[in-house]
């Protein structure tokens, strides 16, 4: 399942210079420079090429091995080398705390009109807004449904969501872009169990129904030079900082959790 593939997959406009790994919920290793991956250990006293080892934990370190999610990154520069985060005015209209002050329940049947193209240049961050949800990102329990509508690229900047996992489902692209986003607080997305579905063709559905692990792509390690700005969303607070180093500067990584692209569904 760790087969490396070129990105020229039908119906997807990925750059031909990038490579991807296939799989979901498994571990990957990738290096942009040959020999950048430390051998037999994750955090040696001196990393190859003078890189900096950092770990990102997706679960508590006390959870059983089968549930543990963490990734080791080997940076050209430490991720802490950025200017202090400062408050930023609200980006889009995201809601992460669902209570009487921010939302209400109604028995009225509702539907949403198609999204219109923004009247002014709008990127992914400013185009985000919440439709519905329940629970609280602060309590690490619940979910939210968002949408975004954008017609501008996020040049030299990146978005980090500290509240939960995003599942982005685009339904329009190649120019103005629109998408549905599912967010979960306090847990991670996982593939559903392969049990019987419906009444027809039960044997085939129980073994091969729904999405498969091979339907997901994980980008390999790479780095690019560009001054950058990072936008961070934590609960209801938006912060931003500038980072005058390479923002995508992973010369190697060992992944147990990662950003993934869904390339097909059953």
Would you kindly provide a written description of the structure presented here, covering whatever features stand out?
The chain is mainly β and 266 residues long. The chain is globular and about 60 Å long. The strands form 4 sheets. Strands 3, 4, 5, 13 and 16 form a 5-stranded antiparallel beta sheet that branches. The longest helix has 7 residues. It has 1 helix and 17 strands.
Short description:
With 266 residues, this protein is mainly beta.
How do the SSEs run, as a string of H and E?
Answer: EEEEEEEEEEEHEEEEEE
First-to-last CA distance = 18 Å
Which whole number gives the mean pLDDT? 76
Low-confidence stretches: 1-16
How many strands in all?
Answer: 17
Structural class: mainly beta
Determine Rg (CA atoms, Å). 20 Å
> Roughly what percent helix?
under 10%
Count of DSSP H/I helices = 1
List keywords for this structure.
266 residues, mainly beta, disordered N terminus, 4-stranded antiparallel β-sheet
Describe the secondary-structure layout.
Elements: E1 4-6, E2 19-22, E3 28-31, E4 52-57, E5 70-75, E6 86-87, E7 128-136, E8 141-150, E9 157-161, E10 164-172, E11 177-185, H1 202-208, E12 216-219, E13 223-224, E14 228-234, E15 237-243, E16 248-255, E17 261-262
Parallel strand pairs: 9-14
Antiparallel strand pairs: 1-2, 2-12, 3-16, 4-5, 5-16, 6-15, 7-8, 8-11, 10-11, 12-17, 13-16, 14-15
